[in-house]
Design brief:
Arc Repressor Mutant, subunit A; D-Maltodextrin-Binding Protein, domain 2; 9-stranded mixed β-sheet; 9 helices
């Protein structure tokens, strides 16, 4: 019996997620259905594709041999979807973006809202997680990172620079000791990442403040931001979160600012999928325009739009 795309899709999900339950969540199927689909595929091919252990589902030799063919079928279906839609400049379907939660909370909603306003048939999903995304496991169609990945069949494009700055609630600043130098921060509560849960070296910035650990911490920068807004202390936050916020005030603007960058990361095979490439172009352009507006609001000048070259 020839393998159907529906069964191959389930096979890929289990191979990437490592369990029936995780694959079911990704496919919006119950684990029992996922298990039956896998068994049906194995029966049809006459070979066991997975070895179940305490660590989950691992590919057998037959599963490893099937994997590249299933991935080719996935790409073929993506190309077929492009061809069938044929809507010209209008985008449709689902696109999932993985992003660190600072970008996902404060920057992407503005950019994505403008994109879907001109592409109403498009469904965009933003997965905000304080960790790196695994595109090889298809956790997302594309991801935004704060550093270039060092391995994998990926394409990487620099999007834009941003800054990490110090900020605190105006009420907090009015009721505590003045902050005129970095040394003065030692008398204040600092808010930042839980050190053991920092997921990227670009977020290790407390040594720049002359401090070892934050007094108040979270693995989510959005939580850190809300702590600062509640007057809990001084936080390191993204500059693009501050325009329009009438509670927070930037602190030591001349003495402290760290430049960081956002990168668009895609699976190399997806470069040939017209719909995803068109969306990626809109996303990158939208983020660059938004950061120009941010810089104008904060300083009256615009950042460079030198986004670098695409790398494979």
């Amino acid at each position: 019996m020839a393998a159907s795309w529906d069964d191959l899709r389930v096979f890929l999900a289990v191979a990437r997620q490592g369990s029936l339950s995780a694959a079911g969540n990704a496919l919006k199927l119950d684990p029992a259905t996922v298990g039956r689909r896998v068994s049906r595929l194995e029966d049809g091919l006459g070979a066991a594709l997975f070895l179940k252990s305490s660590n989950g589902y691992a590919l057998t030799g037959a599963g490893e041999r099937l994997l590249p063919h299933a991935q080719e079928a996935e790409q073929a279906m993506a190309h077929a979807e492009d061809a069938v839609r044929g809507q010209g400049d209008r985008l449709s379907g689902v696109v999932r973006i993985g992003a660190p939660d600072g970008c996902a909370n404060f920057l992407l909603p503005k950019v994505v809202s403008r994109i879907v306003a001109t592409h109403p048939e498009l469904e965009v999903q933003i997965v905000a997680l304080p960790r790196l995304f695994n595109l090889n496991r298809r956790e997302a169609d594309m991801a935004i990172g704060v550093s270039r990945p060092e391995a994998g069949r990926l394409t990487v494009q620099k999007i834009v620079d941003y800054q990490l700055v110090l900020a605190a609630a105006r009420d907090y600043l009015a009721s505590t000791a003045p902050i005129e130098t970095l040394e003065d921060l030692k008398a204040h509560r600092l808010i930042g990442y839980i050190p053991e849960m920092i997921f990227d070296k670009e977020l290790e910035y407390f040594h720049d403040l002359g401090a070892d650990r934050p007094v108040l911490a979270s693995n989510s920068v959005a939580v850190q931001y809300q702590m600062a807004r509640q007057g809990a202390g001084v936080a390191v936050t993204h500059d693009f979160a501050l325009p329009g916020d009438h509670i927070l005030e930037r602190v030591l603007s001349e003495a402290f600012a760290l430049t960081r960058s956002f990168y668009l990361i895609r699976h190399a095979d997806d470069a040939r999928v017209q719909r995803l490439s068109a969306f990626a172009e809109l996303l990158v352009g939208g983020m660059r325009r938004e950061m120009i507006l941010v810089r104008e609001a904060l300083t009256g000048s615009a950042p460079s739009e030198d986004a670098g070259e695409r790398e494979t």
